Amino acid sequence: MQDGCILYLADVPADYPLTAAQRAFVDFHVRKQIQIDRAAIQQALAELQFPLYFFDFETIDHAVPAFDGCNPYQQVPFQYSCHILSEEGTLTHCEYLHTDAGDPRRPLAESLLTHIGESGSLIAYNIHLERGVLHHLADHLPDYAERLRAIANRLWDQLPIFRQHYRDYRFGKSNSLKSVLPVIAPHLSYALLDVSNGTQAQVVWEAMIRQGDTAVKQQRMERLREYCHLDTLAMVEIHHNLTRL
User: CA-CA distances (angstroms) from residue 94 to 11, 173, 229?
Assistant: First the structure.
C-alpha cells in the first residue's frame, strides 16, 4: 500500500467493503489457491471425437475493407495452423500462409478443406473468432459453404475448462491462452518469438506481403509461421495435461 492506495491484492484489508464475488477473488489469489474439478474436465473431454484438430486462424480487420464483399473491421483470415492428433497418439501439423496482397479467402479455404477431414473435433481456444471466420468464408464462397459450415459446427472450445473447472492463482486475472500456457506447459513460451500476439501478426503480415526483398519477406513469413504454430501446439500440450488429470 502506498499513500493510502491499495496496489496489491494482499494489501486489501479484511474489512474492506467488497461484494461476495470480489472477496472470493481476493482470497483466492492471496491464499494462492488451485481448484480443479477433475470429474467435470473428464466429462467435457469425453465430448471429443478423434482425430482432434487443434486449430487457429490469424486475421486482419481493416477499417476500410481491402477485399470485395467485406465489412469494416471484418476478420479476414490470412493464415492458419492445425495440429492433428490421432487416437493412437500420432501428431502431425499442417498450415497455410497467404503471401501476396490478393484476397486470401479462397486459397485459404481451399487449403483448409484439404487438411480437415469429414470427422473429428476441431479444438480452438475461445472459438468465437474461428466460428465467425468460417461462417464469413461460407457466405463469401457458396461453392464451399456447406463444407465450411459443417466444420464450424464441429468446433470445441478449450476456454470454458479454465473458466469453470480449472482455476489457478498463477493465471492472474485472465484465462487467456497466454496466461494459462506458462502454468500448464512452462516449456513452451511466446517470449522468445519475434511475433508474440495477434496484433503483431497483423502488422508483420501487411509488411510481408508488400516486401520486395525476398530474404526479408522469407524472414517475416517464418516469424508468422512460428507464432501460429505455437498457438496450436500450446493447445495440444494443454490437452495432454488435461487428460493426465
Answer: 48, 33, 9
Asked if 178 and 195 touch (Cβ cutoff 8 Å), the reply is no
Burial track 8-37 (b if 16+ CB lie within 10 A, e otherwise): eeeebeeeeeeeeeeeeebebbeeeeeeee
Sign of the Cα torsion 43, 48, 49, 51 reads: negative
How many Å from the N-terminal Cα to the C-terminal Cα in the chain?
38
Q: Where do the DSSP E strands lie in 109-188?
A: 122-124, 155-157, 166-168
Question: For residue range 11-33, what is the model confidence (pLDDT) as tens digits?
Answer: 878 778 888 777 867 777 777 88
Which one has a higher pLDDT value, 4 or 37? 37
- Go through the domains of the chain in sequence order and give each one's CATH number: 1-31 (no CATH), 39-245 (3.30.420)
Give me the mean pLDDT over the 224-240 stretch. 98
Q: Which amino acid is at 140?
A: H
DSSP-derived letter for residue 1 is -
Task: Give the Cα separation of 156 and 127 in Å (integer).
Answer: 7
Secondary structure of residue 195 in the 3-state scheme: coil
